[in-house]
Amino acid sequence: MPISSSPLAPVSTAALRWSVRGWLLIAAGGQAAFIGFILLFYGVRTVTGNFAGWNDKPLIDGYIAGDRAGNAVFAAHVLIAALVTFLGLMQLVPAIRRRAPAVHRWSGRVFLSLAVFMALSGIWLSLSRGTYLSVVSAVAILLDAVLILLFTALAWRAARQRRFEMHRAWALRTFMVASGVWFLRVGLMGWVVLNQGPVGMTKTMSGPADIVLAFGSYLIPLAVLELYLVGERSQRSDLKLLAAGVIVLAALYTAVGVFGTTMLMWAPYVT
Prior knowledge:
With 271 residues, this protein is an all-alpha fold. The chain has nine helices and no strands.
């Protein structure tokens, strides 16, 4: 019997489709909360001229007295992150691609351009300003930035060549690595909530859990995405069901991480 005629084929296809929709719904809610935090915390302080207030949130000093260039780059990097996050979510909405292709194209161009700026400014902040907690976290940031630049270039080239399926795959990969900062926070707080404490973590993000999550914040989402793309293309029901199961687990962890991040990392600084 051909694999495509398996009675599980429609079930596995539906399972994969709905698992992705479930994850996307959870992620959209979490990224909306991220955008809200950026605007309410950094945006309000920037607009009102309270630049020193960027440091009200501990760990990394955003404002350094006398460092006008560094403060300007930091402000642009943080505030543009809200726009990049919003535009990235827009690229994932099928209705926009179908009903407003021009909006999809132009918002995609802006998304890719700003992703490049985010990567370059992140590299500058890490190497020139020392905006990191440990050497390991700095290396993770730099690797993520390199992947953003690489995937952005490949997504742009595929679009220019009108190889739209390839473009879609590279654009999705770009979304994953460009969302690394968000994934890191969700991953950290998900771990804290599930373990009822910062097991394997340190204040400088040099503990074993920190190291795994620093790199895993974008490598794990990339791996899950690759599994989804393989399952989507495959005619094998078992691969589709495997991908759907992994995505469901990812969605559940994301939900826990979004809750923990919103309640423990963001809400206390905007209320």
